[in-house]
Protein 1
Amino acid sequence: MFDSSPLSLISNRIGKLDDLASLKLSVVIPFYNEENVLAECHERLCSILSKIDGHCEIIYVDDGSTDGSRKLVEQFSVSQISLKYIGLSRNFGKEAAMSAGLEQARGMAVILLDADLQDPPELILSMVKKWEEGYDIVNMQRIKRNGETWFKRFSAKCFYHVLNMLSDIDVPNNVGDFRLLSREVVDNINQMPEKNRYMKGIFSWPGFRQITIPFVREPRFSGETKWNYFKLVGLAVDGITSFSIKPLRIATFLGCVIALFSFIYGVSIIIKTMIFSEVVSGYPSMMVVQLALGGIQLLCIGVMGEYIGRIFIETKNRPLYLIQTIIEQPAVQQSQSYEESA
Ligand code: UDP
Ligand code: MG
């Protein structure tokens, strides 16, 4: 992603040094303006990670926060756990922030966690246990979504249903971004070059040995969700168009069916006129047919436009995100101050 930049050279070198110490687990937390929850999240996460037998790191990916989140993260310090702050140059969206975190993570297993405590950090222990049993991906499935409106629950259900119907990969129902990925899976995901990163699809694509653990999704600890319905619809369209070309096939199929019916209808009109000498009538029905056809045509052009737009974005080949700052605090060190590497 940022292979040629001086920054990436620095971070790659740091990566190599730390690899020698063999990190067991990396927890990646993308956040955007979460100053009200970060302290609580950090505390709960650290107390859980201290129970893990092995060296852990926490990677905070700041997706262009404009509140006091960065200051807060800079003050965090734990002696047994490595901390890393990755500051993106602006708000690139959660999908890009997660990709940045995955590229920076060096653990043998990586867990993605929301900062708002909707995904309870306490479940990390059972996720790690499953990984130690040999699973490469541990999916966390929400069986109950506390604190979410019925409309959000209903629309999420419909979306997963439509996505699975249309796409060629199997995206598990109600599994969000909270999951554990093995090093092998993370390496494969990091090699995926696409810029339209619908992460739930990307996580499912590599396959490998997977297991799903059910959990109850808690309400937000504080603050508001960063997703409005407009953004969610955009994410849903991304999800479908990134992993399926079926909508294009449906458009073609629809065109064929309508053309066939039009032909049959045309023949019937000719026969009626020639044999039964029927006079032309039915202005309203003509209007309905015209408007319906016009609507379907526009819809099909729109579907094609979605794909062409994505081709346009991919061909520009811009980086997914830009890192402005990396601050590291290695584990077990005397001084509690951060060592700034950019
Ligand atoms: N987030 C982010 N960038 C964004 C929007 C959200 O990094 O542009 C983070 C946010 O801070 C949180 C996580 O993604 O840690 C999930 O966001 P949110 O709680 O708003 O989504 P929801 O749980 O409602 O799906
Ligand atoms: Mg949330």
Note: The radius of gyration is 25 Å.
Protein 2
Amino acid sequence: MSETYRNPLRDPLDRRLPRMAGPSALVMFGVTGDLSRKKLLPAIYDLANRGLLSPGFGLVGFARRDWAAEHFAAVVREAVEENCRTPFRTDVWQQLLEGIRFVPGELDDDEAFQTLAATLAELDRAQGTGGNHAFYLSVPPRAFDTVISQLKRHHLAGDENDRELGRWSRVVIEKPFGHDLASARELERNVSAAFESQSVFRIDHYLGKETVQNMLAFRFANELFEPIWNRTYVDHVQITMAEDIGIGGRAGYYDGIGAARDVIQNHLLQLLALTAMEEPTSFAAEQLSAEKQKVLAATRPGRDLAQDAVRGQYLAGWAGGRYVKGYLEEEGIPPDSRTETYAAIRVDIDNRRWAGVPFYLRAAKRLPRRVTEVALILKPAPHLPFARTDSSGLGSNALVMRIQPDEGIALRFGAKVPATGMELRDVTMDFGYGRSFAESSPEAYERLILDVLLGDPPLFPRPEEVESSWAILDPVLEHWADSDESPQGYDSGSWGPECARQMLARHGRVWRRP
Ligand code: BG6
């Protein structure tokens, strides 16, 4: 092989050491929310601690609070100390503190945006941010349009002049991107009227998880699995995102959104795309997205929506060793809410590789444990030369990619029980990240925030992917909206409603109990 040969699959995810971001300011809208406190602010600190933020970095909080900058800095520090992944170091904090600013105001307040523009100019003079700005919209989806038009009106969205001066302006949009296909398209129109397409970063934090990126390595770096990765060997696929928590203090966000919009439209369909797509010609954003987009465009919900899309709502029950409230008793939830906290849907992929292989997606709150996994369940061997009694303990072979926790990959197959005639039982062969690598994985948000500051787009869904995902989900959502039935109740701490069990049972299948 010539020296200059470059495997197209080796860039750009193959950066051995992460690059440091250049000078820039990150403006956070919605900085008082849960996501900021638990994930975003700690991730910024962790990046600083890993030496990945430039000394010319600034952090600007924008919120409807009458706070002085010092108060905001104290709030950031508390969030960081509580939730950072790497050790808290005073010198790193002091450095970060120098670039922290706060702008109080409403999102539709022009004066507040003028103050924001002035604050960014001052920050550039003081810290040397280079006039580069990333605007992170961690606000309720209904506020996206307001913030975007305010940024444009106040000349913060970047223009020809900025580009000539080598400055950039980027916008980061938290999910959900729209609440159906039509609203996602409208939001896209508004965003692209303000920002250039390469400056828009739509967040799906699952794509920032190491284990999700490993799905690409697992599938495309190995010869072992490709031959079975198709309809000839795979009976069906189960993609599960189970959470043991309830909705906590997020009633305002969650009610009316529900499990399907909250995580199936984005996280689970992205996992499906990575599982089912063909090999991209490279891991550059265009190529990766082209393959994901192709498979999403071939995906549709099951034909019989009454049976192939079911939903549930958690009732009171024992979960995690304590008795917890039902969804309808949670604070802020209307007593007649029909929002689903459990959703399971069957989708089919109309292409040569997957024709006839159902993909079952389920997502829920208040299940017995937190686990996200993708499981390929294989067809039975065509013939078993064993006595029926010997093989009664044999299930289907399965290949399971565990996204979290206990990140790894497991292979389940049958083996002979020692010291018996030929009795068979399922056993598992297991790869665990924690056991194979010394390095711990960065949090998804660390990777994604760094990629925004670097302008590196492969881990962010493109508009076509977002729209295709809504096109898959819209018929299901319409079917539920038109139905007279409410979501079926399930006890907190159980594996979900009876209708979900029946959904698989009528095809002789069962949900995994991961
Ligand atoms: C978010 C959802 O996208 O993902 C939440 O809005 C959910 O409802 C969360 O709890 C789970 O994320 P993770 O990384 O803990 O699986």
Note: The pocket of 6-O-phosphono-beta-D-glucopyranose is lined by residues 243, 262-263, 372 (CB under 6 Å).
